[in-house]
Automatic annotation (TrEMBL):
UniProt family annotation: Belongs to the PPR family. P subfamily.
Origin: domain of life: Eukaryota
PANTHER family, alphabetized: MEMBRANE-ASSOCIATED SALT-INDUCIBLE PROTEIN-LIKE, OS03G0201400 PROTEIN
InterPro entries associated with the record: PPR-containing_protein (IPR050667), PPR_rpt (IPR002885), TPR-like_helical_dom_sf (IPR011990)
Positions of PPR repeats: 45-79, 219-253, 254-288, 289-323
Organism of origin: Trifolium subterraneum (Subterranean clover)
Protein name: Pentacotripeptide-repeat region of PRORP domain-containing protein
Keywords: Repeat
Length: 424
């Protein structure tokens, strides 16, 4: 690259010499420093210095790292306080107090203060290039030496490091909490998700305990992060306790809060607590949404409690909560088709068929009507009447009309009056 005149970057050169140092080729590092230095490239020498001494310390070559501090300075690479701290800290861990003090004296006499903006930019570049291990290493130096850097750097480190090492990311989380820095909701959610993914439930609980001690949770959004991941981790009791804590603080859990706990109850076959939570939710003035109904309807159906599922489905339609996806529509159709002699009210079927028509799911609608014809032919006329009546009040009647037109020619007597009804 030097021969061809290809420019180096701080990121590229820094990561490269870090790995070279870890391989033990110190003479090659010196040669590279001289060659690159002579090219007059805009490389941040202080950042590169940290990478070099860290690489040496990682493989136990601490004395050479101390010597390298002087070599770097004499070559104009300007090691800052962070580079000196890396070497001094390694001597401290070794119990070598004499050399630790020596390096600290060098730091006070020769070192320069690190510029937080330089390391913020470097970490962001490392993350963008998916060099997460290197970003983690620089972050650990910043935390260990208590160097100044902006809050968004720690949030980025928590998020990206937790993707590959959730427990390792807790180092940055602990620092943010201890120093009362700003932890973003997205960072907390991502850390929690990755801890759950790796089954690190104890660590997850400790994260939430630490935040509660600092009074971090102040609104429903924040509490919902805790509730959702506690429930995802299977800690239903703790999730429900959070709902009660919210109420004590004057915060009203929203429908998502209840859905998280209700879904966790159903996953653990706790149907009675789930029904109790349903009653509690509506008693508190919180109305269920499509997901709320789907959770319990699915569980009732799974447990063979078809009548209870039908009652909820009817209530869902009565409340104007309509399925909004092919999966939900198919599930609703199957539920109605699973009933015995009582196949529900015509209104329920009309609402379902309208939803199917709007979703362009005519095949499912046709199969559903065939099932109704087999079970209770007399209801077909009421369903047809309801569909025709809906044309005059629908803001977008075309899908329903197309569905009805498609039903013509199928020799079903109920559609004999469709043309006159459609023109009304």
């Amino acid at each position: 690259m030097i021969v061809k005149g290809v420019p180096f970057s701080t990121l590229g050169f820094g990561v490269f010499v870090w790995w070279v140092c870890k391989k033990g080729v110190l003479g090659k590092v010196m040669s590279l420093l001289d060659e690159v230095g002579q090219c007059g490239l805009e490389i941040n020498g202080s950042v590169v210095a940290v990478m070099i001494v860290n690489g040496l310390c990682e493989v136990g070559r601490v004395s050479e790292a101390m010597m390298m501090l002087s070599e770097l300075r004499s070559r104009g690479w300007k090691p800052d306080f962070m580079a000196y701290w890396v070497v001094a800290n390694e001597f401290r861990k070794m119990g070598n107090v004499v050399d630790e003090i020596k390096v600290l004296k060098m730091k006070r006499k020769l070192g320069v203060a690190p510029r937080s903006g330089d390391y913020k930019e470097f970490i962001f570049e490392l993350v963008s290039e998916k060099r997460i291990l290197e970003a983690k290493m620089i972050g650990e130096v910043i935390v260990g030496g208590n160097f100044v850097v902006e809050d968004d750097v720690f949030n980025v480190l928590i998020e990206c490091v937790s993707d590959i090492d959730p427990v390792g990311a807790i180092v940055f989380f602990d620092y943010v909490v201890e120093k009362e820095r700003i932890l973003s909701i997205s960072s907390l959610s991502r850390l929690s998700r990755n801890l759950c993914r790796m089954s690190k439930v104890d660590e997850l609980l400790e994260v939430f305990r630490a935040l509660e001690c600092k009074n971090y949770f102040k609104d429903v959004e924040g509490y919902n992060v805790m509730v959702s991941w506690l429930c995802e981790a299977g800690r239903v009791k703790e999730g429900y306790a959070v709902l009660q804590e919210m109420k004590k603080k004057g915060l009203n859990p929203d429908v998502s809060s209840y859905n998280y706990v209700m879904e966790a109850c159903c996953k653990q076959d706790l149907l009675r607590p789930a029904r109790k939570l349903w009653d509690e939710m509506f008693a508190s003035g919180c109305c269920g949404n499509l997901k709320t109904y789907n959770i319990l309807i699915h569980k009732f159906s799974e447990e063979g409690q078809v009548q209870e599922a039908q009652m909820l489905l009817n209530r869902m339609f009565d409340k104007g909560v309509e399925p909004d996806s092919s999966r939900h529509l198919t599930a609703a159709s199957k539920l109605l088709c699973s009933l015995g002699h009582d196949i529900g009210s015509a209104e329920s079927h009309v609402v379902l068929l309208k939803c199917l028509a709007d979703a362009r799911q005519s095949p499912i609608a046709i199969e559903h009507l065939r099932w109704v014809q087999d079970k209770l032919p007399s209801m077909l006329q009421d369903i047809c009447t309801g569909l025709l009546a809906s044309l005059s009040v629908s803001k977008c009647p075309e899908p329903i009309l197309q569905f009805l037109q498609r039903m013509q020619g199928m020799n079903w007597f109920i559609f004999s009056g469709m043309e006159s009804g459609g023109r009304t």
